[in-house]
Amino acid sequence: MTLLSLLAFAGLCLLLSLTPGPDTFLVLRIALNRASAGVAAAAGSASAAIVWAGLVGVGLAAILEQSAEVFRWVKIAGGIYLVYLGVSSFLKARKAAKEGMADGADAPLPYSRWAGFGAGAVSTLLNPKVGLFYLAVVPQFIPHGGNTLGTAMILGSIEAVIAFCYLASVAVIAFKAMKWLRRPKVNATVERASSGIITVLGFGVLASGAVN
Asked: What are the TM regions of this chain, as residue ranges (predicted)?
């Protein structure tokens, strides 16, 4: 992998982190009572993301060892998923903007640091979209004859660090972040920007898969 590839992946992870999702609002709810518990939840989520990266890396390594052609189709399927993820996120953002994002947050429950860490880890481990994200992205960064598991762990570590830094920041400024993230215009802008980039990346993957 080149430095440019790593920077491109880091930029994609940053955009995805800035898009409010289940982990973001879980950290927000936990941090409303205790900021340190929210930071612990962010650490749990990041740790679970690395676990997902390892599992996906092992699976992809097995597929590549069995058949390069099957791996190529996995790569194309990953591109299709990225296109779907980008388009569906864009449509969701438009629908949310029209409806005014008029949903209320549940009352926050008190969490200890360990309980926060566990909640963050379980939330990410039980989210199959995290695994699908790695399954779609990792093959695009594996050079010919490269180390599949090693690449997956590097990418997973980058994503985990970025996600933790963002979620920990959200936890520290939970009250302010909650108001900012729930503004329809802010949420819609972030959703559209990230979904557009994911869609373009997906089409690029499909084009490269069709040529190779």
From this structure: 39-64, 76-94, 114-137, 149-173, 193-211
Report DSSP state, residue 67.
-
Phi-psi domain of 34 (left: phi exceeds 0; alpha: psi -120 through 50; beta: other): beta
Q: For residue 90, give Cα distances in angstroms to 19, 85, 112, 191, 197.
A: 11, 9, 36, 6, 11
| DSSP result, 23-55 | HHHHHHHHHTT-HHHHHHHHHHHHHHHHHHHHH
Residue 171 is encoded by which pair of tokens?
């936890």
Q: 142-146: which pairs have CB atoms within 8 A and are 24 or more residues apart?
A: 142/60, 142/64, 143/1, 146/1
More confident residue, 108 or 28: 28
Give the SS3 label for residue 60.
helix
Q: Is the pLDDT of residue 78 over 70?
A: no
Mark 59-76 as b/e (b = at least 16 C-beta within 10 Å).
bbbebbeeeeeebeebbb
pLDDT at 85 over 60: no
Cβ(181)–Cβ(24) below 8 Å: yes
Structure-derived torsion over alpha carbons of residues 75, 137, 49, 162, reported in degrees to the nearest 10: 180
Three-class SS of residue 73? helix
**152: CB partners within 8 A, 6+ apart:** 53, 54, 56, 57, 60, 134, 138
Separation between Cα atoms, residue 157 and residue 122, nearest integer Å:
18
Tracing tokens 């920077």 back to the chain, one arrives at 7
Question: Which pLDDT score is estimated for 164?
Answer: 93
